[in-house]
Specification:
Blueprint (H helix, E strand, L loop, with lengths): L8 H19 L6 H8 L13 H22 L5 H18 L2 H9 L6 H27 L8 H13 L1 H4 L8 H15 L3
Helix pairs in contact: 1-2, 1-5, 3-5, 3-6, 4-6, 4-9, 6-7
GO molecular function, one term: DNA-binding transcription factor activity
Organism: Rhodovulum euryhalinum
Protein name: TetR family transcriptional regulator
Length: about 200
């Protein structure tokens, strides 16, 4: 396959990432070949290596980008005063952010098993960094007597799993709006932590 006219790094690089993300989310990392990605982008398979080191590096880059964007967005999110307000802000933020990026979410949470050890360690550290943001809120709420939690680490993992799961079933044309879903999830999270 010949290179598509207009295939330049500022165009092809982002298209490559978008195609890989879409294919990995739809078929799974292990099932997608570099040839499939190249065909989606409109370049020869060998040309992909002008933009990425290898398929493993591409997967790690997609995950890294998602998690770095997540952490940066949360850093900018208004939280309100106190742990209850912060927990509500986290809940609504997490749902809003993730519903806008279902493919990136699927890859970031379901394809960890396909990462080689150095990439796994890097991505796991970013995930833990985000989890720590929530656990800090839960610790503060428990210390203030606002949350009834025997184990903040376990509660953190449970809440994140519950919130992230929304991307597997939510549909824009479904019966619930994003705001309604966020409100219902906030009610469930509040009850989960004994607030």
């Amino acid at each position: 396959m010949a290179r598509t006219s207009g295939s330049h790094s500022e165009i092809t690089g982002p298209r490559l990432r978008e195609a890989a993300q879409r294919l990995f989310a739809r078929h799974g990392y292990a099932a997608v070949t570099m040839r499939q990605i190249a065909a989606e982008v409109g370049v020869q398979a060998g040309a992909l290596y002008n933009y990425i080191p290898d398929k493993q590096g591409l997967l790690a880059d997609l995950m890294r980008s998602h998690l770095e964007e997540l952490l940066a967005a949360w850093a900018e999110e208004p939280r309100g005063a106190g742990p209850v307000a912060a927990l509500e802000a986290f809940t609504r933020f997490h749902i809003r952010f993730h519903l806008e990026r279902p493919d990136a979410v699927f890859i970031a949470y379901m394809e960890l098993r396909n990462l080689a050890p150095p990439h796994f360690a890097e991505i796991e550290a970013l995930r833990k960094s985000y989890e720590t943001r929530l656990e800090d809120i839960l610790r503060e709420g428990r210390a203030a007597g606002l949350f009834d939690l025997p184990d903040t680490k376990l509660a953190t993992l449970a809440v994140i799993a519950m919130l992230t799961g929304v991307t597997t079933w939510y549909r824009e044309d479904g019966r619930l709006s994003r705001d309604k879903v966020a409100g219902l999830y906030w009610d469930m999270v509040r009850k989960t932590v004994g607030a």
